[in-house]
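User: Here's a structure from my thesis project, written as structure tokens. My advisor, Dr. K., wants to see whether a designed sequence matches the one we expressed. Can you design one independently, without my sequence as a hint?
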């Protein structure tokens, strides 16, 4: 079918009206028709992806984003951003984080005004990924406890059965019961600490690298970043990441109080190095 750019643009405009009115099925259908009229327009795929997200069609929305990125040679901020949202919705946290970071890279590169929402998406991906890792850690710990107890109970049964007298069977059984009870108690004592929800506070996170700050410094507005991150940013773009106003390294000031707070947090929460 021959490309009809004018027809495609009209269908896209109609789709936008339906989307804004909350008619997502109608918008999705119109964007699909627009794509049939002009399948080379990357923005049509991201528009349809947005409608499909509203309908819960995450796999189809992911396909649209990938098609947009294919047409855009991978350099489409909106596609990476929407793709991250879709991947997060289906619990593919690693892929969602990678897509969000790509969107953030393009935001910084183009000085796009959507840096705030994109930064929020990166942080949400990191937190959701950490939550999934925590759930897996707790689940694996519980499974390990069950496996060890089961092994000990089988060993107890074998040892009791190997005894030749009733007295020996009683003594051996009591000894193993005590061992198993002690192990259960040990697991129980450690559970309250190990299963506490482990979270990294927002104030400790650098919004450029998305890592925990080690050497925070303040800009003229009072916003803090890790020194290594803000210096690298200023080397490439000599502007404030938040206000987009000119900013020079000489204008940065150490945030000693925040640095001490971050160090104290890391000292008490060694696991956070993997965040």
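Assistant: Designed independently from the structure alone:
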């Amino acid at each position: 079918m021959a490309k009809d750019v004018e027809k495609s643009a009209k269908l896209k405009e109609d789709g936008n009206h339906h989307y804004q009115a909350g008619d997502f099925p109608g918008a999705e259908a119109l964007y699909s028709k627009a794509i049939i009229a002009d399948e080379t327009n990357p923005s049509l795929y991201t528009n349809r992806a947005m409608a499909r997200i509203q309908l819960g069609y995450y796999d189809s929305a992911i396909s649209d984003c990938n098609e947009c990125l294919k047409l855009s040679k991978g350099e489409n901020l909106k596609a990476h951003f929407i793709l991250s949202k879709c991947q997060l919705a289906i619990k593919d946290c690693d892929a969602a984080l990678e897509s969000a970071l790509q969107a953030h890279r393009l935001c910084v590169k183009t000085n796009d005004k959507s840096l705030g929402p994109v930064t929020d998406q990166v942080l949400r991906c990191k937190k959701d990924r950490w939550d999934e890792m925590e759930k897996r850690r707790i689940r694996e710990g519980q499974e390990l406890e069950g496996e060890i107890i089961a092994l000990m109970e089988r060993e107890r049964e074998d040892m009791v059965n190997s005894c030749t007298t009733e007295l020996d069977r009683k003594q051996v059984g009591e000894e193993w019961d005590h061992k198993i009870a002690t192990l259960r108690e040990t697991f129980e004592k450690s559970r309250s600490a190990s299963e506490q929800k482990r979270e990294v506070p927002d104030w400790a996170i650098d919004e450029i690298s998305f890592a925990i700050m080690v050497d925070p410094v303040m800009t003229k507005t009072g916003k803090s970043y890790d020194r290594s991150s803000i210096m690298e940013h200023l080397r490439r773009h000599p502007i404030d990441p938040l206000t987009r106003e000119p900013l020079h390294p000489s204008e940065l000031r150490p945030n000693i109080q925040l640095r001490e707070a971050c160090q104290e947090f890391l000292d008490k929460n060694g696991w956070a190095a993997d965040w």
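When you compare it with your expressed construct, this may help: The longest helix spans residues 115-162.
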